[in-house]
């Protein structure tokens, strides 16, 4: 087989095995451009990418253990309970470091680009940067709302100005569901001592 035909497969296989055998596996997407060149990625950054290979993901407890050291360090540095950080991550991304929301929030703690910039997060898909940036932001919200967890969580979801305006969890169904979800995870993690 000529090298020109073999080369794309070598690239694909190297991407596939690096993604497949990494700690946090991710799906592989591909698209063929107008020149007939295939492009592969594990982050769907363009609408032209289509799911090519679905890989397994590590869920729940295993993910918590994988990021526990980072979470503990961030909790200590910013004075935020580790249970609360884990609960936000569970609600936001289910511990998927490559998560991207429809609104453009990225990574474990689903940081929007302006928030990531404000928190000095250069790569929102880097778990350590994302957790430290998200925890720093959460700590600022807790201070702003006098350590009222529900208000801080609501502000994390919808923005601090909306919460400050009503001085309560706003009557936005998505935000209310988010607060309930995070608080449910928080209570469960505290009971389990994780």
Describe, in short, the structure shown:
By secondary structure, the protein is mostly helical. The chain has eight helices and three strands, in the order αβββααααααα.
SSE inventory with pairings:
Blueprint (H helix, E strand, L loop, with lengths): L2 H18 L7 E5 L5 E4 L8 E4 L6 H19 L3 H12 L19 H6 L8 H18 L4 H10 L1 H7 L6 H20 L2
Helix pairs in contact: 2-3, 2-5, 3-8, 5-6, 6-7, 6-8
Structure description:
- The protein is 57% helix and 7% strand.
- It is mainly α and 194 residues long.
- Helix 2 crosses helix 3, helix 2 crosses helix 5 and helix 6 crosses helix 8.
- The radius of gyration is 19 Å and the shape is globular.
- About 11% of the residues have low confidence.
Keywords, separated by commas or semicolons:
194 residues, mainly alpha, Lysozyme, 2 domains, 3-stranded antiparallel β-sheet, 8 helices, 7% strand
Shape: globular
CATH fold node name of the largest domain = Lysozyme
Whole-number tally of structural domains:
2
Quantity of strands, as a count? 3
Q: How much is the radius of gyration in Å? A: 19 Å
Which residue ranges are poorly predicted, with pLDDT under 50 across at least 5 consecutive positions? 9-25, 56-60
Estimated structural class: mainly alpha
Number of helices: 8
CATH architecture of the largest domain: Orthogonal Bundle
As a percent range, the share of strand residues is 5-15%
Secondary-structure element pattern, one letter each = HEEEHHHHHHH
Largest sheet: 3 strands, antiparallel
Strand order of the largest sheet: 2-1-3
Termini separation comes to 54 Å
CATH classification class of the largest domain: Mainly Alpha
The helical percent reads 55-70%
| Mean pLDDT value | 81
